[in-house]
Design brief:
8% of the residues are buried. The longest helix is centred in the middle third of the chain and has 26 residues, at 54-79. The protein has helices spanning 2-13, 19-31, 38-47, 54-79, 82-87, 96-108. It is an all-alpha fold and 117 residues long. It contains 6 helices and no strands.
C-alpha cells in the first residue's frame, strides 16, 4: 500500500509525458483475472527460488494489490484540495509530507495518528 499510495499521489498531482498512459496501464492490470496467473506464477516463483517462502508471498500479494491501490487512491488524491499542498509553502518551508498525512488518512483507510482508546 505504501508504494501504491506514492504512485497514486504522483499520478494524481503531477502531469508528465506518459502519466495518463501509466494510469491506464494500472487500470488494465485490474482487468487481468488473477486465476489466469496462478500456473505461470507458480513456475516463476519456483524458478527464482521463492516458492513457499514469505518473500514470495509478499511479492505476489503486493504485485496483485498494486493496481487496485493506485486506482482507489488516485481518485482520492485528485479530490484533495490543492490548497493543502500550497499551504506547505507557508514561509517556513514545511514539506507536504508534514501536512498531507492528516488528510490522506481517510483515503488510506487508517487513522493518523493512531487513536489512543
Amino acid at each position: 500500500m505504501l508504494f501504491g499510495s506514492m504512485c497514486a499521489y504522483v499520478l494524481a498531482r503531477f502531469t508528465f509525458p506518459g502519466s495518463r498512459l501509466l494510469y491506464y496501464l494500472m487500470l488494465a492490470g485490474l482487468t487481468f483475472p488473477i486465476f489466469l496467473a496462478i500456473v505461470p506464477l507458480f513456475f516463476v516463483l519456483r524458478g527464482i527460488g521463492l516458492l513457499n517462502t514469505l518473500p514470495g508471498l509478499i511479492l505476489t500479494y503486493a504485485a496483485f494489490a498494486f493496481p487496485f491501490t493506485v486506482f482507489f487512491l488516485y481518485a482520492f488524491f485528485r479530490s484533495l484540495s490543492r490548497s493543502i499542498a500550497e499551504a506547505a509553502d507557508d514561509g517556513r518551508r514545511r514539506r507536504v509530507a508534514d501536512l498531507l498525512p492528516d488528510h490522506a488518512a481517510d483515503g488510506a483507510g487508517r487513522a493518523w495518528p493512531p487513536s489512543r482508546s
